[in-house]
Amino acid sequence: MNAERLRFAIDKGGLTLPSEGRIALMGALAEDGLPIKAERCEIIQTFRPEVDAWQSQGAALATALNGPYAAVIVTLPRARDLAETWIARAEEAAAPGGLVVVNGAKTDGIESIAKALKGKVAVQGQVSKAHGKCLWFTAGAALADWARPAMARNASGDMTAPGVFSADGPDPASQALAEVLPDTLKGVVADLGAGWGWLSREILKRPAVKHLHLVEAEQTALDCARLNVSDPRAEFHWADATRWAPQRGLDVVVMNPPFHVGRKADPKLGQAFVAAAARILAPHGQLWMVANRHLPYEVALAHLFREHSEIAGNSKFKILHAARPTRQRR
């Protein structure tokens, strides 16, 4: 949809990209492809699955803007604070007189962003297509107040960043899981989808944990975790948790897996985390996980583990324990 809208703006909507100079694409999705010749494009991505997908296409990649650019095209992220921050950074990174293009779906907040932009900049053009909008303006210095620090401390004193999951404080589901993790947890452990590190710190309170792998796909969240988790037993991995593999089978996996792709709930994502846990655990290994009450993970657990049960929960969450994976696909 984002690609359809952007190409419509270029082909029929009056959007003319600069004929020379580099063009940055912030948050672009690999499945959408490139709107112009690859040699002019630099993809700005910090989400590992998208980085891997773009690399397989041979695209030029960076994790942060390094201007000046002739144009910066922003694919609107879901979080409002992150969206404003990206657009402000895009304006700053565009060469004087460069172009900033903002492309997003209604479900990601493009309507409110477009309204706010029109109160700050002179929008040169706009198209509506595929349940969203694409608009563009000449870079100046109008959006400095939209820029937020790359990281800041939340109310509990932890470092988080715009757009990071549960940035204001620990997620209630992770708190519920931490409350029932046994004090006897031991060995080599992985926290799949570690986020900014709150649950990892709880795991490391167990003295028999020898080593903890924090596996997180969002680089920004992992950078926060590096600051929030100072225990020398911690090792940090910027990786897609569904594909990551340790050198040897683990004793324990702990996780609060994501279950959204964009705004759409997709249980298959959490099921992929369950499959990954079964794959990376040693034959004696154990899985501890939390899930929203309605999510159907029990079938996957029954298929991939010899033992599984719900050990705690409430009307919102269920705490699941599984042991002895049946399929070793390492």
From TrEMBL:
<keyword id="KW-0949">S-adenosyl-L-methionine</keyword>
<dbReference type="InterPro" id="IPR007848">
    <property type="entry name" value="Small_mtfrase_dom"/>
</dbReference>
<dbReference type="InterPro" id="IPR029063">
    <property type="entry name" value="SAM-dependent_MTases_sf"/>
</dbReference>
<dbReference type="Pfam" id="PF05175">
    <property type="entry name" value="MTS"/>
</dbReference>
<dbReference type="GO" id="GO:0052914">
    <property type="term" value="F:16S rRNA (guanine(1207)-N(2))-methyltransferase activity"/>
</dbReference>
<dbReference type="InterPro" id="IPR046977">
    <property type="entry name" value="RsmC/RlmG"/>
</dbReference>
<keyword id="KW-0489">Methyltransferase</keyword>
<keyword id="KW-0808">Transferase</keyword>
<feature type="domain" description="Methyltransferase small">
    <location>
        <begin position="160"/>
        <end position="320"/>
    </location>
</feature>
<dbReference type="GO" id="GO:0052916">
    <property type="term" value="F:23S rRNA (guanine(1835)-N(2))-methyltransferase activity"/>
</dbReference>
<protein>
    <submittedName>
        <fullName>Class I SAM-dependent methyltransferase</fullName>
        <ecNumber>2.1.1.172</ecNumber>
        <ecNumber>2.1.1.174</ecNumber>
    </submittedName>
</protein>
